[in-house]
Fold:
Amino acid sequence: MTTQVRTIQIEARPRKKKYKFVIGGLLIVAALIYLIATTTMNSAQYYMTVNELLESEKALSGRPVRVSGAVVGETVQYDPNTLELRFTIAHMPDSPSELAAGGLAEALREAVSDPNAQRLEVVYVGPKPDLLKNEAAAILTGTLGDDGVFYATEVLFKCPTRYDEAPPDLES
Amino acid sequence: MIANTGLVALILAFGLAVYATVFSAYAGWRRDSAWLLSARNAALAVFPLLTLSTFALVYSLVTRDFSISYVADVSSRAMSTFLRVTALWGGQEGSILFWAWLMSGFVAATLLRNWRQHLDLMPFVISVAMLTTGFFVGLALFLANPFARLWEVPGAARALVAIFPPAEAVQFMPADGRGLNPLLRHFGMIGHPPTTYLGFTGFVIPFSFAMAALITGKAHEDTWIRATRRWTLVAWVFLSIGLILGGRWAYDVLGWGGFWGWDPVENAMLMPWLTGTAFLHSVMITEKRGMLKVWSLILIILTYALALFGTFITRTGVVSSVHAFAQSALGPAFFIFIAVTFIGSLYLLLRALPTLKSEHELESFMSREAVFLLQNVLFLAITFAVFWGTVFPMISELVTGTKITVGPPYFKKVTGPLFALLLLLMGVAPLFAWRKQSAQRLGKALMAPFLAAVGLALGLGLLYDMHPGAIFGLWLVTFVFLTIALEFWKGMRARMSVRNEAPWTAFVRLLDRNHRRYGGYIVHLGVVMIALGILGDAYLKQETQGPLAVGEVMTLGDYELRFDGLVQYPGSDGREVVEASTTLMRNGEVIRELRPRRDYFVVQQQPVTIPAVYSTLGADVYVLLVGWEEIGLRSSTFKLYINPLINWVWIGGLFMILGTVIAAWGTSHRRDVTYTLPSQFRSNVVVVGGSG
Structure:
């Protein structure tokens, strides 16, 4: 008698168990999707070029955005007492297909030397980053003020001189 | 001439890699041992050939052969010989050659070590591993050749880069090279690329074995796992070292007092580490209980694909990043190769799916199996969240036409709770029994560490008025630390009472007898330390900034910093140094002098801010010289950070390395101990020793 009962239990158990694990798994996945989706929405920021930023100036109305461009070296001003840093970035195309054949370095050089490229004045308070120099690529987070100046809260620079350089000039 | 030898060796290596890929697969298919031996010899020969090639490039770097484009690009006369050697991985072409060389070394070592026991898997192990090696050698040969030279073509403004001289061209030798970016001249950045590459390439061994097992229909056995256990640990520990060195570089050089920025390139490295960590846990269950077989296979496929993806991201610049990388012809080639590898291996997995039945059913949520399954899920979830955040700008641009990014806050908010859960699991998992665990007994075992951790966290939290997140984090870190310490204590106490051993002897022998388990716990202790460091960085950091005239003092926390003066002098390697001398004081008592600097490398026009740091286990006081008055040098501006607990990140890294070494090889004196044991334990010991 007891043997019989046990046999039935062994057969019935796995199916019931599996069901439990599937529900548990689905709950975990649902929680994860919820976490990722809500956080994505709450922390999403537009990532724009200078042209795109200036075009959508009104629609943004003070919302934080990220903007990229090329640093114009002669505009960099730094007050070591107040740590106020001012510089201008020039519009640079963003997608790889629009980039010049010479890669990022060439695109940055063109952007800075092009007198018709749109420019954006930037103000940031903080230590002057080592990588801030002429023809550096800037990625800035902040808000566009009513005065047309971009108030950055976070600045990143990358210098393509490292890996992505055209062959040397023959003069050298 | 030497460089040309390297080029010829590279060409031969490519031919042999292709040969080995094709004919080992053919040998496996036809079960033909003659072809297999031939393919094996070809695969073995790739390593010495690439060694020759690599050394030829190093020789060119050391002898300053600037007629080679790569040498002119990454080295300069002013650099020391050591730095010129490290320039091997300072740029794209050299990195790819170096990558291929390391991978061929791993493959050769495996073929020599595992040939006899795993002959049945070998044809496809060779084929899969050589396919990847051949791909990288091919990249180095056709798309990013490190031996390409500079040529002067009449009428052209710039030198031309080519392997063979264009018509009417003469060889061009610049007087000096551009040199390594001064920002990269740091031990972290010198050690980071090779360790990372060792980690990435090392995963080729478990991946190839997994694929071979799938092709030969042996994936349901655990042979492929046993054969590759140590290789996986080697790859994993190097990837971990690479991550930590990268973090250390960022902390020392980038001057923002942090070590992790959730940059795409950092994420690309973190993802294979996450799946790799899940993999090496998952295979334990596959090995011991014959469960999670599909999980283990999926995790190694993901790890390998993500390692390739990581190389792809860092080497092609597809994602905007603070790190500067080339946007080159490598992109499409990489993309196709990753897609082929990933889809091909998933196809093999699907084909073998019916054979991959679990040998045991999952019986309860309260079991060690279930806990391991949950940790797989969590690691995968974090990987997905990081992947999602990294590629989100690209996805949003494809779908909506506008690029939208999620910044570091996204990564912190999503991965924070998941990492916390994982940490908790790490603490309690060792207490779970196989199959089913009684909740009551578990609760009893965990009560003491739980209460002790609550007491400590609340006490410290209220004393220092901490953020609730910090209090919770402190509780978690203490609790997990105590559970691990308890495991050690239980093991030691058993030995001390049964065998009458002194505590230290008991500790050493515990590690020795069961080095996989306790080595793993040491790695876990390292993780707890790193978590403590991250906690300090996330919640307890303090900073201030401002100008100081000579003699003035700025205050932060308990510390005061006095500005004593500024000097300017020419330094080595062509740099102009501006150095401030400051005195760090705590509650009015002088601790020591700190000299933050700003070096300006004249040729490269590159300033480098070098922080002065007062380091203790409790906190780093981190001072940056961020500006000064040019005339008279009477006033300077400083940024001052207190980074509590940060040194635990590096110490934890060392524990991770130590624990992995113990887990992989055990301690060295096992043999001596075996002979000193009483005879009744001896047979027991042989079994334990042999299982590692």
Q: What stands out?
A: Chain A has two domains: 14-44, 46-163. The longest helix of chain A spans residues 2-43.
